[in-house]
From TrEMBL:
Identification of the protein by name: S8 family serine peptidase
Similarity comment: Belongs to the peptidase S8 family. Furin subfamily.
Parts forming coiled coils: none
Organism of derivation: Candidatus Methylobacter oryzae
List of catalytic residues: D176 (charge relay system), H211 (charge relay system), S401 (charge relay system)
Pfam family for this entry, one: P_proprotein
Record field: transmembrane: none
Keyword Signal recorded: yes
Signal peptide (residue range): 1-27
Length: 611
């Protein structure tokens, strides 16, 4: 404990006059002198665009003191509460970590210098032994089983972000097949995980499936603890919901609103079946649950739902998955260690951004935790491609399943540095700060809002450091508006068989939406074979978004009919039009690309979201 003289109360003084967003790069130890017990000297704090040094501040109480090593290497101030968190402070010959004090005023500032926007931030390299293998966090050219070196620098750039945030104070729910709540490298909230097998709070661990546990490790495995691996948000807490361990889908809606008052982020690495090409709409109850989460979660700021875009390429597009293409979720695709699309990662107009799932264990997948002991992905003995003698860890995790919890971790970093962000702000920050990977890919275009977009990559790969830096000074976007319009099809339009496209135009006027965020498109057609159709939407700014392509459908590797799944209507979602204006002519194009049958476009409408 601190000396008794360090813990005291003073009459309220002037409010802390400086608006502090966050501090970083502490130059020297922050100190407290018993001779002046009402004040503390803070070595370095970044305030907006300036860096202040030797800040002498008064305080009236010590709120809390951490245990063990500090969870940050910088001091931070929350103007909403007046609390200053000091990473390390010297009191005489003793050193204390994570000390939270209530600031009441500022006495003096030793110096101030502008922060150079191009100045490299401090890079944090955790002491976890398997971090060196985690190329998705820091790609130094590591090789996989195939002995092919990764592309240096092709990673999440999170080691730069850790100088500002590590996920402290954020809670992530892992919705999956289970979570090993007793794993040595996880920080799980006691008693708050849910077991859908018994439908009670309890132990959602799976003795066989390791998928959810491996996802949890990618999001937030403990960092700098000298054990195993590092998670993106390595000081965040987690809970697990074993939704996929039950055979019914009746809990889908329940899982995404479970403990809504406590969770900040819900990470979902599952979805429609892969490799079949079928259109899979989402349930209305699930949609309503997502709407509840984004409107009421986090005291009205909305929780963040990350969603796996799917591993069904080339047969599937993420557009076909009615969960991954929903307005309230962030659909995430996967890159390999060269920064190009993982072979299985699905393209889509709903795709927000990319993280890293690698390819396969036989080439180069990602390193994370496995369930404890010999069960799960790695038994520590029988798979020479995996870690021998380390059954609690694996280097064989892959998929958009792996990429999605990585972005859950990045979202945790954003919410730590700026708790005021809404879920829509998080989405906008990720898009605006994404890096244009695979820059020579032919599908890259610039949309009408000035964003680079690609059906295979969304807005690009998430850059954690750029996103965190943006979040520090981010001005929240205005309240969301919506506008709807329907096509005037008094007579259904014939879709010519294997011929020119049928087009229909909707004119949207007076929407008040100058910057789009998302667009829903509902299409009804009696065409008996949706696999014959290529459907595109062109915005008033001229940006084309592909919703379906001519493709085969498969069940257990047998080619089958894709069917008339537009007969009862299907909703598609487009996120690649951010920044464009909503008003103007929206054009739907439907082309039959195979000679066998025909049908009609019966109805379609749009719903625009933006501000």
């Amino acid at each position: 404990m601190l000396p008794k003289s360090f813990i005291f109360k003073l009459p309220a003084a002037a409010l802390f006059a400086l608006t502090v967003s966050s501090g970083k790069n502490v130059a020297a130890s922050t100190a407290w002198d018993p001779a002046t017990p009402d004040r503390v000297t803070v070595s370095t704090i970044d305030l907006g665009n300036n860096r202040y040094t030797n800040v002498v501040a008064t305080f009236n109480s010590v709120i809390s003191i951490g245990n063990g090593a500090p969870t940050h290497n910088y001091d931070s101030y929350d103007p909403a509460t007046g609390l200053l968190t000091i990473s390390t402070i010297k009191v005489g010959t003793a050193t204390y970590n994570d000390v939270v004090i209530a600031i009441t005023g500022v006495i003096s500032v030793g110096g101030v210098t502008p922060i150079n926007a191009t100045e490299p931030s401090t890079e944090i390299i955790p002491n976890d032994p398997l971090f060196a293998d985690q190329w998705h966090l820091k790609n130094t050219g590591q090789t996989g089983i195939d002995r092919v070196a990764g592309k240096i620098g092709e990673d999440l750039n999170v080691s730069q972000a850790w100088a500002s945030a590590t996920g402290k104070g954020i809670q992530i729910a892992i919705i999956d097949d289970g979570l090993d709540i007793h794993h040595e490298d996880l920080n799980v909230v006691a008693g708050k995980s849910w077991n859908y097998i018994t439908n009670t709070y309890g132990d959602p661990s799976s003795t066989i499936g390791s998928h959810g546990t491996s996802c949890a490790g990618l999001a937030a495995a403990k960092g700098n603890n000298g054990i195993g691996v590092t998670g993106v948000a390595y000081n965040a807490k987690q809970v697990g919901y074993n939704l996929l361990s039950v055979t019914t889908s009746s809990f889908d809606a329940d899982s995404v609103t479970k403990d809504l008052q406590s969770n900040h982020i819900y990470s979902n690495s599952y979805g429609a079946a892969d490799n079949n090409g079928l259109l899979e709409p989402s349930a209305e109850a699930w949609q309503q649950a997502i709407d509840t989460g984004i409107s009421t979660g986090r005291q009205g700021k909305g929780v963040i739902y990350t969603w796996a875009a799917g591993n069904g390429a080339p047969e599937d597009r993420s557009d076909y998955d009615g969960q991954a293409n929903y307005q309230g979720v962030l659909a995430i695709g996967s890159l390999n260690d060269q920064g190009t699309k993982s072979s299985y990662s699905e393209p889509g107009s709903n795709l927000l951004a990319m993280a890293y799932g690698g390819e396969y264990c036989s080439s180069h997948a990602v390193t994370t935790i496995d369930i404890t002991g010999i069960e799960g992905s790695n038994d520590g003995t029988s798979n020479p491609e995996d870690y021998i003698g380390q059954p609690n860890y694996t280097r064989c995790m892959n998929g958009t399943s792996a990429a999605t919890p990585e972005i859950s971790g990045v979202a945790a970093l954003l919410l730590e540095v700026n708790p005021a962000l809404s879920w829509r702000d998080v989405r906008a920050i990720l898009a605006q700060t994404a890096r244009k990977n695979d820059p020579t890919h032919s599908d890259w275009i610039t949309n009408g809002g000035g964003f680079h977009i690609n059906h295979n990559y969304g807005y690009g790969v998430v850059d954690a450091a750029a996103a965190v830096n943006s979040a520090k000074t981010w001005k929240n976007i205005p309240a969301q508006k919506t506008a709807t319009a329907s096509a005037n099809l008094t007579t259904p339009l014939t879709i010519a068989d294997n011929n020119a496209a049928t087009t229909s135009i909707i004119k949207l006027s007076n929407s008040g939406i100058h910057k789009l965020e998302f667009v829903d498109i509902n299409i009804t057609s009696n065409h008996p074979e949706v696999g014959d159709l290529k459907i595109t939407l062109t915005s008033p700014a001229g940006t084309s978004s592909t919703l379906t392509t001519v493709h085969d459908c498969k069940l257990e590797d047998i080619t089958v009919s894709c069917g008339s799944s537009l007969n009862d209507g299907m909703r598609f979602g487009v996120v690649r039009l951010m920044g464009e204006a909503a008003d103007g002519n929206w054009t739907l194009s439907v082309r039959d690309g195979r000679p066998r049958d025909t049908g009609k476009l019966i109805a379609w409408n749009i719903k625009a979201y933006g501000y």
